[in-house]
């Protein structure tokens, strides 16, 4: 069962949080998926003088390519998720939280200081750690054993992913699209570059689970 349904009625913010590469595509077209995230694809395209069908086709191309290089064997796919995403998130979030604390402390009087970024990243780390532990200790072992359907546990994971998507919108807002102000120090640039990579990785991670792994254990 796929959560991602591309249509002109889909909201920009939802697509940005679920489809790898969509955020970058929206940025290139000047479409905000933070403050303007509640617009439908059709509305957003119209505001940028872009044919809605063109935008939809570009997004569909991203959807067709997403996950194409992931391992097809389920145990190998799980191993890939654990190594590429779980361990990477843990390592990078610890570094980003420390860097956000530094930037907020040093540049707190700046008009564009990302006040609240450290707390948001810390909340995300706690929630994601709980989520990943449930996968590592319960869901993934059951998948490796060949359980036929796991709709209940997967529904919980999908709900968590929805929450992560909301947090990604807040990251985009707090960092003004991951764009440091003119004259920002190297630490500020490094922070936003790191947060942007983390956000893009998380979208890739959730898409791989939502659209490739989870449907294998849900009723058609």
Automatic annotation (TrEMBL):
Location of the Hemerythrin-like domain: 78-216
Annotated keywords: Cytoplasm, Iron, Metal-binding
Write down a Pfam family by its short name: ScdA_N
Could you tell me one molecular function GO term of this UniProt entry? metal ion binding
Task: Specify where it is mainly localized.
Answer: cytoplasm
Q: Which Gene3D superfamilies does the annotation name?
A: nmb1532 protein domain like, SP0561-like
Its GO CC terms are: cytoplasm
Spell out the protein name for this chain.
Regulator of cell morphogenesis and NO signaling
State the organism named in the record.
Cereibacter ovatus
């Amino acid at each position: 069962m796929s959560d991602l349904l591309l249509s002109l009625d889909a909201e920009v913010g939802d697509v940005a949080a679920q489809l790898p590469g969509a955020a970058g595509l929206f940025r290139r077209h000047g479409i905000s998926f933070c403050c303007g995230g509640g617009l439908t694809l059709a509305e957003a395209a119209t505001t940028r003088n872009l044919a809605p069908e063109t935008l939809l086709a570009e997004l569909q191309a991203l959807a067709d390519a997403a996950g194409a290089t992931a391992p097809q064997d389920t145990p190998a796919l799980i191993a890939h998720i654990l190594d590429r995403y779980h361990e990477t998130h843990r390592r990078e979030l610890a570094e980003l939280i420390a860097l956000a604390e530094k930037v907020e402390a040093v540049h707190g009087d700046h008009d564009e200081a990302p006040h609240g970024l450290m707390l948001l990243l810390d909340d995300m780390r706690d929630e994601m750690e709980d989520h990943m532990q449930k996968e590592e200790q319960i869901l993934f072992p059951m998948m490796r054993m060949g359980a036929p359907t796991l709709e209940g546990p997967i529904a919980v994971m999908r709900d968590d992913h929805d929450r992560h998507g909301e947090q990604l919108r807040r990251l985009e807002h707090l960092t003004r699209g991951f764009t440091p102000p003119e004259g920002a120090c190297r630490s500020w640039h490094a922070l936003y570059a790191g947060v942007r990579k983390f956000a893009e990785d998380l979208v890739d991670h959730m898409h791989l689970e939502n659209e490739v792994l989870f449907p294998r254990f849900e009723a058609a």
